[in-house]
Specification:
Layout lengths: L17 H12 L5 H4 L3 H11 L13
Length: 65
């Protein structure tokens, strides 16, 4: 599934809570989300998450099998 679909700000990150976005960044990168992201507005945080997870093949839990 990760080969055909990737999370973007528009199709996923803007639709979930901030804590879930930060958790996705941590899970997808294997490192804690940078402190600078905590203070961002949700739209900016979603864009950062998209950029950070772009080439990781990370999928939301619902799409994993």
């Amino acid at each position: 599934m990760a080969v055909w679909w990737g999370p973007t700000a528009e199709n996923y990150f803007k639709r979930i809570k901030r804590a879930q976005i930060l958790a996705a960044i941590t899970e997808g990168t294997g490192e804690p989300a940078p402190d600078r992201l905590i203070k961002l507005k949700k739209g900016d945080l979603a864009a950062e998450a998209e950029a950070l997870l772009e080439n990781t093949l990370w999928l939301p839990p619902i799409l994993r099998s």
